[in-house]
Amino acid sequence: MESPTALVSLIIGLPLLGFLINGILGLSSTAYRSKKTLIGILANLAVFIPFLCALTLFLNFDSESAAAFAHLFTWMETGSFSVDIAYQVDQLSLIMTLVVTGVGSLIHLYSIGYMAHDEGFWKFFAYLNLFIFAMLNLVLADNLLLLFLGWEGVGLCSYLLIGFWYTDMSKSDAAKKAFLYNRVGDFAFLIAIFMIFETIGSLNFEVILTSLEAFSGNDIFWIGLLILIGATGKSAQIPLFVWLPDAMAGPTPVSALIHAATMVTSGIYLITRMSPMFVMSPEVMMIVAVIGALTAIVAATIAITQYDIKGVLAYSTVSQLGFMFLALGSGAFTAAIFHVVTHAFFKACLFLGSGSVIHTMEHVEHKLHDKGKDVHFDPQDIRNMGGLRKYMPSTYKTFLIATIAIAGIPPLAGFFSKDEIVMHAFNMGFGEYAGAMYFILWGVATITAFLTAFYMFRLTFTTFHGSFKLPKLINGTEGSEEYLHESPATMTTALWSLAGLSIVGGFIGLPNFVSKTFGGDGHINWLHEWLHTIAADIPLTLSGTAEWALMTFAIIVAAVSVYIAYKMYGNDQQEESDAWIASKFGPFYRVWKDKYSLDELYEGAIVHPTVNFSDKVLAVFDMKIVDGFVNAIAGTVRISGSLLRYIQTGVASNYALFLILGVILVLTILLF
Amino acid sequence: MEFLLNLTIYFPLIGILAFLVFRNDEAVKWTSLVVTSITFLLSLPLLFQFDVANSAIPQYVTEGSPVFSGMDVKYLVGLDGLSLLLFMLTTLMGPIVILSSWNSIKKSLMGYYSMLLILQTASLGVFASLDLVVFYVFFELSLIPMYFLIGIWGGSDKVRATIKFFIYTLVGSLIMLVALIYLGYSAGAATGVFEFSADWRFISSPEFTLGLVEQTWLFLAFALAFCIKVPLFPFHTWLPYAHTEAPTAGSVVLAAIMLKLGTYGLVRVCLPVFPNAFAEFAPMMAILAVIGIIYGALVAMVQKDVKKLVAYSSVSHLGFVVLGIFAFNTVAVQGAVIQMINHGLSTGALFLIVGMIYDRAHTRQISDFGGIAKQMPVFATFFMIATLASIGLPGLNGFVGEFLILNGSFFSELYANKVYAVLAAIGVILAAAYMLWMYQRVMFGPITNEENKKLLDLNGREIGLLIPLVIFMVWIGIRPVDFTKYSENWVESYITISQEKSTAVLETADSSDLPNWTNRIYDVEESKVESFTSNK
């Protein structure tokens, strides 16, 4: 295709422009801040027009097209090092760009309603646009360093948006935590970049991936491992995932866009981009898969115990990202990207749905305050909810659709992508790689799939089914259900669009074996065709029968799980059922509820000792020992010539005196 | 153009004469502003006319005749790729520094602004001088006004800070003077014409080499003097004192310009003149640099005074610069050169910002703040940008320098060990920790101190003096090539020259004539074999 420079410049440039206009005008003019319609429209266009540009590029592309490059200018160049601000349009970056700008547009639209009454409206949209800009740099970069710019850029936006309501110290704590955990990952990523540059003298993806033979096996292992550590930061995997649940302190559209649909999938994108390198190291693949499966089940078990509507979704996100890592480690890079896409649809829908719920619960609180009732309750606690489906039909229906999608019920989106991942993990059990270990991972993934359906339906039933609990729990809230209402059209439009995508999104990756069974050519998986030049997938070698069996099994697992969840939570039994699980799983349940005490571990083993050591040892050492040495010299001077007195009284003359003394000393040395 | 360079250097000094006419406080301020602004404008043609392709060769050179007979000591100034940007940074900071003091200095304004103007000339002189004696004179001259600025217009503990600053600089200066005199005599002998020579162009050239013994002692002396200036761990304790007690303008000049004299000296003198010692001691310097990076960051983390925190962050940041210099490849040294500018911009900005809040709240204790962002949104924005630049966020200037330094150090042949770069990179995590933690405690949360509800946001003057700094932070962040191009040729040339000199010295060295320790340090016989085989 012809050079994409013009379109890419628009795609990258407009969100930046949106940020600059809303940011600078908003900061400098209070009059501008009140023009919310204008601000909202500008910010939305800054994402929607890039979406249309990306669509244009997409329509001019087919699965065999060679990558097209948009070279803007040289970024750094010195000695043997050179790197450009240049973008690569290919099948993978297009998929990611479409998701980022597409889902991004819907969430921008939703935010107009959601943030309508916030005084930081202008700032919110400026940050959101900046985020889109950084994210597009990340997915479109043609080299690792520009990707890294986007990588840290999205981290910055995440920081700014988590701490958006910064007057609340716990929110700014969450923001700082997110940034720092990400920095730990970024440190490893940087070292990987150094290693790659040292070996081949370039950071360009095309060059790296065509000179893989220049790397030793040892290099490949370490680079892979370091990139993985970087990815565990950004994509919230063990051991660095603890920041993501806290990140829910940000406004809900942010959770949907950044902490579910886009930014947190960066690690998956990066590893897929580098997949030809990863498949060269079975050890790294294995580690990726184990981290993914472990994260998936750890987060899913925590999700069961949560009462915060966004908390459940946050751990669910960590768990789903774990599935994606399992896919990567199983050589199913396409399936990982497939799950990135479907997850973006249904999880964004779920988060925005939760936002709609929180919005109305806050409205109830405000209304009660208006009526002079001094009541306080947590608008995110599902125990205060129940029965909301009557009052918010659109929110309920879309939330239910997305729940079915994530639970893995066919034919909704999540079913196809998750099934492909689980199947690949099983397939790897037969492979030349680590063999049997992958069967265990398949087992873990299956249990996690069961848990996913369970906690998601627990959440949906408790929130929307049964009766509205608040009046029964808190004095002074009687009759408050009359304040419950459906959210405005900007919000429900976004919800319905995402729900629709959650239904049909899976059709881009239909399983090929189904087609074969019915006499087709076995090429109905569009995404596989589309990505085949980029994703270094390890092919499935299972027989058609085995694949059918696995798929049937997965459906049964999901269906059973939904049924159990319905029995336990379908009709106002949340309290009893949670208590029953707690007693049944005893110590395990406590571990889940304590979130495996990882925060306490990191705080106790790393953060506090470092701060204490710096405060009690280093700072004192600096003042007493290092500085004491100098003071000792000063003391000597005092004794020998009482010079200190002179210094304290006169100023310039002493200086001159010292200089003269110095010169005499020098001359003496020179003469003898 | 030669005249223009001299005019730029001395214009601030000449400007002081105007105080004879404009004596009242307002007039003194405006005169200083006009003088430094004109200085900045005068310096611009020097940048635009600069021959980038030949940046290793000094340009706009003014060469006087020797002052004493038989001694090649003369007035010699010019700009080359190494000094150009630092020279420009100094002229840029001139008006900014003047504006920053506008309302905060109340006593003896004429003296204060005279000191700033003398300081300006002295700093410009240091960067422009190409004769080492002239360099030394300007170097010393720059200390005197700083000494007064802290001692007269400083904070409550200014006496102690001044003494410490004074003792340290005195020790550093003396050591350098001794070494300089020795070097001058050696160079003079090498010319065959003079008894003494301080012409840097000759001393740094391939024609002049020093033996291993002399190199070792001279390197150590110069390096010590410069490392005190940097300051490199463990010679850094004067810095937090000096910074905390200095008035804002003093801190800004100290951080943005005077600390660079140390790292500048390491590149200007140590790299080309003592190549063998430079190479042999590089790992030792890297160790000190890495300790400084981590140690500075950890101590910064627990400071209770914002200004002291920024001061310790300088120790950490300048550790990166030293690490880059001794990595001794174009990528890392270029990173170090641009990082000198970056540190000047971002730490300069941070000190200005701390000064602005101090002017309002009359405190710098972190615990006295909290929730300021709500009260001062514009201030919060600038503070955030400077913070991000300081922690090396890609897209802003700090990242470019840190990345090039770390990347170059990673594959540095002199270090031959990845551990320096890897450990130094931990500093990047720590920087985010101490800066964001500080920012949070000062700016976020609810307003806990009632006094802070009266704070007013930045005025036009304050915004105006921060904007140029922000522009350069972004510009260097996204188009660093526009800046690194000036020193590219210089760095490449002198690395080559230094390598060639080093090989030549080793080839001619006779191990039997050398003391044992020299043979041990330099592995004279083995290195000869190595260079022999590599030449083949």
UniProtKB/TrEMBL annotation, chain A:
<keyword id="KW-1133">Transmembrane helix</keyword>
<feature type="transmembrane region" description="Helical">
    <location>
        <begin position="145"/>
        <end position="167"/>
    </location>
</feature>
<dbReference type="Pfam" id="PF00361">
    <property type="entry name" value="Proton_antipo_M"/>
</dbReference>
<feature type="transmembrane region" description="Helical">
    <location>
        <begin position="121"/>
        <end position="140"/>
    </location>
</feature>
<protein>
    <submittedName>
        <fullName>NADH-quinone oxidoreductase subunit L</fullName>
    </submittedName>
</protein>
<feature type="transmembrane region" description="Helical">
    <location>
        <begin position="284"/>
        <end position="304"/>
    </location>
</feature>
<feature type="transmembrane region" description="Helical">
    <location>
        <begin position="324"/>
        <end position="346"/>
    </location>
</feature>
<feature type="transmembrane region" description="Helical">
    <location>
        <begin position="652"/>
        <end position="671"/>
    </location>
</feature>
<feature type="domain" description="NADH-Ubiquinone oxidoreductase (complex I) chain 5 N-terminal">
    <location>
        <begin position="75"/>
        <end position="125"/>
    </location>
</feature>
<dbReference type="InterPro" id="IPR018393">
    <property type="entry name" value="NADHpl_OxRdtase_5_subgr"/>
</dbReference>
<dbReference type="InterPro" id="IPR003945">
    <property type="entry name" value="NU5C-like"/>
</dbReference>
<dbReference type="InterPro" id="IPR001750">
    <property type="entry name" value="ND/Mrp_TM"/>
</dbReference>
<feature type="transmembrane region" description="Helical">
    <location>
        <begin position="37"/>
        <end position="59"/>
    </location>
</feature>
<feature type="transmembrane region" description="Helical">
    <location>
        <begin position="94"/>
        <end position="115"/>
    </location>
</feature>
<feature type="transmembrane region" description="Helical">
    <location>
        <begin position="436"/>
        <end position="457"/>
    </location>
</feature>
<feature type="transmembrane region" description="Helical">
    <location>
        <begin position="187"/>
        <end position="208"/>
    </location>
</feature>
<feature type="transmembrane region" description="Helical">
    <location>
        <begin position="6"/>
        <end position="25"/>
    </location>
</feature>
<dbReference type="InterPro" id="IPR001516">
    <property type="entry name" value="Proton_antipo_N"/>
</dbReference>
<feature type="transmembrane region" description="Helical">
    <location>
        <begin position="494"/>
        <end position="514"/>
    </location>
</feature>
<keyword id="KW-0812">Transmembrane</keyword>
<dbReference type="Pfam" id="PF00662">
    <property type="entry name" value="Proton_antipo_N"/>
</dbReference>
<feature type="transmembrane region" description="Helical">
    <location>
        <begin position="254"/>
        <end position="272"/>
    </location>
</feature>
Automatic annotation (TrEMBL), chain B:
<feature type="transmembrane region" description="Helical">
    <location>
        <begin position="75"/>
        <end position="98"/>
    </location>
</feature>
<feature type="transmembrane region" description="Helical">
    <location>
        <begin position="281"/>
        <end position="302"/>
    </location>
</feature>
<keyword id="KW-0812">Transmembrane</keyword>
<feature type="transmembrane region" description="Helical">
    <location>
        <begin position="340"/>
        <end position="358"/>
    </location>
</feature>
<feature type="transmembrane region" description="Helical">
    <location>
        <begin position="110"/>
        <end position="128"/>
    </location>
</feature>
<feature type="transmembrane region" description="Helical">
    <location>
        <begin position="419"/>
        <end position="437"/>
    </location>
</feature>
<dbReference type="Pfam" id="PF00361">
    <property type="entry name" value="Proton_antipo_M"/>
</dbReference>
<dbReference type="InterPro" id="IPR010227">
    <property type="entry name" value="NADH_Q_OxRdtase_chainM/4"/>
</dbReference>
<feature type="transmembrane region" description="Helical">
    <location>
        <begin position="217"/>
        <end position="239"/>
    </location>
</feature>
<feature type="transmembrane region" description="Helical">
    <location>
        <begin position="134"/>
        <end position="153"/>
    </location>
</feature>
<keyword id="KW-1133">Transmembrane helix</keyword>
<protein>
    <submittedName>
        <fullName>NADH-quinone oxidoreductase subunit M</fullName>
    </submittedName>
</protein>
<feature type="domain" description="NADH:quinone oxidoreductase/Mrp antiporter transmembrane">
    <location>
        <begin position="129"/>
        <end position="420"/>
    </location>
</feature>
<feature type="transmembrane region" description="Helical">
    <location>
        <begin position="309"/>
        <end position="328"/>
    </location>
</feature>
<feature type="transmembrane region" description="Helical">
    <location>
        <begin position="30"/>
        <end position="48"/>
    </location>
</feature>
<dbReference type="InterPro" id="IPR003918">
    <property type="entry name" value="NADH_UbQ_OxRdtase"/>
</dbReference>
<feature type="transmembrane region" description="Helical">
    <location>
        <begin position="378"/>
        <end position="399"/>
    </location>
</feature>
<keyword id="KW-0472">Membrane</keyword>
<comment type="similarity">
    <text>Belongs to the complex I subunit 4 family.</text>
</comment>
<feature type="transmembrane region" description="Helical">
    <location>
        <begin position="6"/>
        <end position="23"/>
    </location>
</feature>
<dbReference type="InterPro" id="IPR001750">
    <property type="entry name" value="ND/Mrp_TM"/>
</dbReference>
<feature type="transmembrane region" description="Helical">
    <location>
        <begin position="251"/>
        <end position="275"/>
    </location>
</feature>
